[in-house]
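Give me structure tokens for this 396-residue protein.
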Amino acid sequence: MKTTLLAISMLFLICGSMPQNGFAGVARYYFRNRANLPSDSLSLTCLNMRSLPLIFKKGYTLIYSREVPGIIEIVNVKGKIIWSHQSKEAGFKVVRFTTQGTLLCLVGAKENDPGYGNTILELSLRGDTLMILKKGQRGFKEVIHHDILLNNKNEIVALTSEDRIYDLSGIGGTVKDTVRGDGIIVMNRRGQQLWKWTIFDVLNPLQDKNIIKNKKDWVHTNSISFDSDDNYLVSFYNLGQVWKINAKSGQVMWKFGKGGDFQLPFLSIFQQSHAAHINQKHWLMVFDNGADIKRSRTLAFQLNPVSKKATLMLETWLPPSLYSERMGSSYLINDTTLLTCSANKKTVVLTNIKGNFLWELHSSKIASYRAEFISGDRLTPGLYRQPSMAKTTINN
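Here you go.
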């Protein structure tokens, strides 16, 4: 089935049936504004600022660098950096703007894998350190990677990694082979573990025909978010699925995607995805990397958990030049526009639903894991209290 899907998708690419709106053929008309931008850092491209949605013009975009030295930047609609924070010795693997108006960060040093961190850091917009937890201290013993957020009890929810030994000798491995799986952990602000879930409790790696290939990173969990009932939505890159997991019992409530519990249109089956979440229209939205066809898109579905049918509500393609094999995100700004991060191309774009270009922010340095939109009413109060816009540095 995967071969058939790949063949059909490639045929669409060759025949031009996939939308090509946006960048090709019209780039020469774009107005490039470099005012207040470091020439070697950010560049902004916009055809007409007046045509942008008011909410976007009054809001901000959050980007960050996972590489060392790490940097967090909050940028306004004109591309001006209005807040930043730097670390000389560590990268920001993921940064979340919380409901409390703070920045929750997973921080990792050079020796950490790209998406993995050893420090949880929470910053105020004044630059104050509100919380810092380091792996190995107190109850913080887990390996954390790819995502972190706060729940409605102000507790830390994060994705974890765990190694277990299996006998894979019968399928080409060794008698004592290591399989790396993923899980979820909930901790209080002192680092004490309150709840834990692991993929090993619900799946047997010996039943996975691809386990020899994927044993070093079996399912590759890359995002966690909350459904409207506060249960978890977790994205598995290697499985091509999003799972809903009960936040109390750990029960897998449903699986969505390739080979999952829902019926969905054949051409909307995604092979890989990032940033799975419920948007403001109550649709399940994912950034589909499209690694099999070398083309990325945004997908949103209306799910019926009773009939197990999924209705495709949104499909917006990025042009081939902005294909992102790994990382990336897409979020609705209003009913007609979405902000998409092509992480591998170090580019964030605002498009309409058809994929037509409205605004583009490109960095020569930052391949941000995601790009998060922050509305002006959420950010301004914190900035108003900030004594200065000077960059600060933390050493980990």
